[in-house]
Amino acid sequence: MVRYAAIVLVTVTLGLATWAGPVFPARTVRSNQVRSLADLSMIRIAVRPLPEVLRRAGLSVDAIRSQWSEALQQAGFDVSDEALALLELRLVTMQDPNDPDNFAINPVLMLYQNARVRRRPGELVIPTYVNIRIGIERRDGIANPVRRVLQAMRGQFIQDCRRANEK
Predict the structure, then answer these.
(1) Nearest 5°: CA angle at 105, between 103 and 107?
(2) What is the tens place of the pLDDT at every residue in 39-87?
(3) Where are the alpha helices (DSSP H) in 21-60?
(4) What is the pTM of this model?
(5) How far apart, in Å, do the first and last CA atoms of the chain sit?
(6) Which domains does the chain have, with CATH numbers?
């Protein structure tokens, strides 16, 4: 009986010690896409020409590029036309001929960087980071939802860059 009580006491003590012990966070596993952003400090920005429906709604390539440039500079990036890394933003819209007042909006953000493929000599310029969104908006209110999604994409990109540099 004493032996049984000792085993129970040891088991309960170990169980409580394990349960009450410090909880260490799991090692963060980052995707290759996020890992490709590590040590990125200099970026070139390209905003592709906008579809007509977005231009008519008051959006412009220059304004979008300026907003991205300012946000990235505030986040500590050097925005320069001399940078090797190219951050490209493309806004695609699609219209259903049966419903001309609604548009599908597809913003695509890609970061192109030089990369090596082991089986091939030299470097390739490939997209190492891609963020794609899609939504449907009415023609008469299309500008504000597009601005909001672009702001969210900027924030996500900056956050992913910070995550890539966490130790």
Answers:
(1) 165
(2) 999 999 999 999 999 999 999 999 999 999 999 999 999 999 999 999 9
(3) 32-35, 52-56
(4) 0.79
(5) 52
(6) 32-164 (3.40.50)
